[in-house]
Amino acid sequence: MPVAVYVLGLSVFALGTSEFMLSGLLPPIAEDMGVTIPQAGLLISAFAIGMVVGAPLLAVATLRLPRRTTLVCLISLFGLGQVAGALAPSYELLFASRIVSALACAGFWAVGAAVAIAMVDKDQRARAMAVMIGGLSIANVLGVPAGAFLGEHLGWRAAFWSVGAASAIALAGILVLIPKIPLPGEKPSLGRELRIYRDRQVWLSIGVTALAAGGVFCAFSYLSPLLTDVAGLDSGWVPWILGLFGVGALAGTTVGGRVADAHLFGVLVWGISGSTAFLTALALLASAQAAAVALAFLLGFSAFFTAPALNARMFNVAGAAPTLAGATTTAAFNLGNTGGPWLGGTVIDAGLGYAATAWAGAAMTVTALALALVALRLDRRTPPRATRVVTSGTPVATSAPEPSRA
Fold this sequence. Notes:
The protein is mainly alpha-helical. The chain is built from 15 helices and 2 strands. Helix 4 runs antiparallel to helix 7 (about 155-175) and helix 14 packs antiparallel against helix 15.
């Protein structure tokens, strides 16, 4: 695995910490800004909305720009967004800073994923994506709990300053360790890349990704108040339990990345089924402290066990458009990260309680599972077809993957 892939994973650590750390900061932000916890939860959705819009928009805008320069500009803009969030005097400006940061984050993910895929062989795609997603997992292990710890002891703004510093370190790593990536010999064509959206498998992949992610984060976004108000745990335990979710995420990414290249649909079906079972258990056992803690780990494992397969699947069905494939996957994940917290907040506002967010999440993952099974059935009926995959050099013709084995 090229060292540049690991540098991208390190950069994703900073991006992921910012994206998910608000799960442990909602109460202090709500109190400081004079808003409700569901309103503070919309800051998570704001970031996700920025990712949904920014991923395809910036992928198209930077299609013909040098990859390394694009990554440098985007991580710099992301860092400035963190500084703006730390200094925000009002909820509205904090909301705006989250959208700006998300736009930069989305562009980085889209371009970074395309670069990572271009640097490895076809049978290593899931492993390469697992390295990048591993940065996200480590963010959940270290970054998110650290953000919650800083919020508890130094105020939530300290968490934003810390992510800004991590972004600066990531920028240095990109400048020093990522080589200049040559543009393809044949200039990328927007029209050719947009043709991937004619494929129903692309839309099925979007649906599976959005619903699988949204189901887990419908509950995870409100895990902090669930642990304190329903399970009755002291707030000091929240950073550690969020860290346990991250440990599960890291373990799930590692296992899923190694298995998904050979058994892609098996990973999808079993991983999403696991998320459904764990969300149902959380809804039923939220008041039991030991169960809530164990299920935090298991949800992290199941959610990130499927992530490398979800990424690789999109690149397999949209191989002729690697930049838009990465952008589309990023947008799909964040459609889920937008809809999940919104649905969870709606459930809470309806007076159904924090545990009910797990029921709502389970409904989303059941739907994701149904779509995955439809995609598997279609995949087995579809003969291999020729595609053109753009690598770091000249586009090359290759055969589409054989129907994936479960």
